[in-house]
Design goal:
single chain; 4 helices
């Protein structure tokens, strides 16, 4: 029994690491703080969180038994319940990844806009200084 539990824990941890979602694995989050950031310092794209959302919803459907393998495809009810549990756990990981991805992307876009506005303001000040120097 103890060996089976240890294998299950290792499988869960490996699954969480490997299936933690595109956002957690591939997005660059904005640097800490509230100041402006330059383009390229973080990920603005919504592709990763959207993929995470779709995969998470599919996993919710499988965990709920809406689609996927039926109970008859498993050797026992316990195996089927484990399958649904781990699928539900995976959908939770994708949901967390999607939420982080959406938040990071929105924060990155907002802070990029601040950066672009700061650059425009700085150029306006420089132009005004050059005109006054003439």
């Amino acid at each position: 029994m103890f060996e089976r539990r240890r294998v299950a824990v290792v499988a869960v941890l490996a699954g969480v690491l490997l299936w933690s979602g595109c956002s957690m694995l591939f997005m660059r989050r904005p640097p800490k703080g509230e100041g402006p950031v330059a383009l390229g310092d973080c990920t603005r794209s919504l592709a990763a969180p959207i993929i995470d959302s779709v995969v998470g919803l599919v996993n919710v459907g499988v965990a709920a038994g809406i689609w996927g393998d039926s109970r008859g495809a498993f050797d026992s009810d316990e195996d089927y319940d484990e399958y649904r549990f781990y699928t539900g756990l995976s959908s939770g990981a994708y949901a967390v990844s999607a939420i982080h991805g959406f938040v990071w992307s929105e924060d990155c876009r907002r802070r990029n806009t601040l950066s672009e506005q700061a650059i425009r303001d700085h150029l306006r000040v420089l132009a005004a200084q050059q005109r006054s120097d003439r």
